[in-house]
Amino acid sequence: MKFLDLAKVYIRSGAGGGGSVSFRREKYIEYGGPDGGDGGAGGNVIIETVEGLNTLIDFRYQQHFFAKNGQPGMGQQRTGKTGEDIVLRVPVGTEILDEDEETVLADMTEVGQKFIVAKGGNGGWGNLHFKSSTNQAPRRANPGQPGVERTIWLRLKLIADAGLLGLPNAGKSTFLAATSNARPKIADYPFTTLHPNLGVVGIDNVEFVIADIPGLIEGASDGKGIGDRFLGHVERCAVLLHLIDGTSEDVAGDYETIIGELEKYGGDLAFKPRVTALNKIDALDEDEQAEKLEELKSVVNGPVHLMSGVSGDGVQDVLRALRSEIDDNRLREKRQSEEPEPWRP
């Protein structure tokens, strides 16, 4: 399934049915009178979050969604049928934006959350509503209200507990593959990761979700590269893991490049808790490790972890550092793999 995190959708709610103008004309009824029923309300356009989705790819193939109109009222005080709602099912973490792509109408962050993005029109009153002592035979009824037609944007921001940051080929995908069951693409060229990946990581009997996004480069905030398109997916994270390639010639410069892009991106992303790790130490000897570590500590305001996603050195310490920054209400108990009981005759 392809990944899509932004979709433009055209919606229209149903129009209400018109009221009825009708009179009782029964042979043995001495007094007749108005008996026109009301029109039915139009259907709503509802957006609902469901489990099992992590992309908006369904909205690439269908962009128009129209709810049903309400039926007109009828005689004998019969109300028209209400129009059927139409429900758009989206992944958890979807933002609903107005046509300007900036105004947030709703933020869908929980499973089962519903939002009426376009309300159906009310049905019109039948002539029974207009009966009075001075007007006992009204010949008027209200038309139904029209539906609401609008254009909206759906923007997905994945809900993860920790997010991975770094330049291309910093080892983010290798780290995710080594610590979870996720299988992102790994290769020795930049921008191997073209869309975000999620992995569930377990440490000390708890689990949390890590998001890997495409690497950032200098000038990403000006449109260079593709990583800036996906920074929204780590906005909801409790902590960010910043990986620096230990084989780089300028580890301090690499660190400052990413921090600068976070600051230019805006919001609270640059102020989120961060865990910094010097990666790929399996390719460095002890002297090189010490040199790179001192160079990185000169620009990092906090501890720096040494790790290797390939050999596994220091990975557990990094996971524990992430765990300590994640709120307890985000952590889940780790599922223990139960050994099946041996078959007995």
Topology:
Layout: E1 6-12, E2 23-24, E3 33-34, E4 45-50, H1 58-61, E5 64-66, E6 86-91, E7 94-97, E8 104-108, E9 114-118, E10 149-156, E11 162-165, H2 172-179, E12 197-203, E13 206-212, E14 239-245, H3 251-265, E15 274-279, H4 286-297, E16 304-306, H5 315-325, E17 332-333
Parallel strand pairs: 1-5, 4-6, 11-13, 11-14, 14-15, 15-16
Antiparallel strand pairs: 1-10, 2-3, 4-9, 7-8, 7-10, 12-13, 13-17
How would you summarize what this structure contains?
This protein is of the alpha/beta class. The chain has helices at 58-61, 172-179, 251-265, 286-297, 315-325; strands at 6-12, 23-24, 33-34, 45-50, 64-66, 86-91, 94-97, 104-108, 114-118, 149-156, 162-165, 197-203, 206-212, 239-245, 274-279, 304-306, 332-333. The chain contains 5 helices and 17 strands.
Key terms for this structure?
345 residues; seven-stranded mixed sheet; 5 helices; rod-shaped
Describe the structure.
The chain is an alpha/beta fold. 14% of the residues lie in helices and 24% in strands. The protein has helices at residues 58-61, 172-179, 251-265, 286-297, 315-325, and strands spanning 6-12, 23-24, 33-34, 45-50, 64-66, 86-91, 94-97, 104-108, 114-118, 149-156, 162-165, 197-203, 206-212, 239-245, 274-279, 304-306, 332-333. It is rod-shaped, with a radius of gyration of 30 Å. The mean pLDDT is 83.
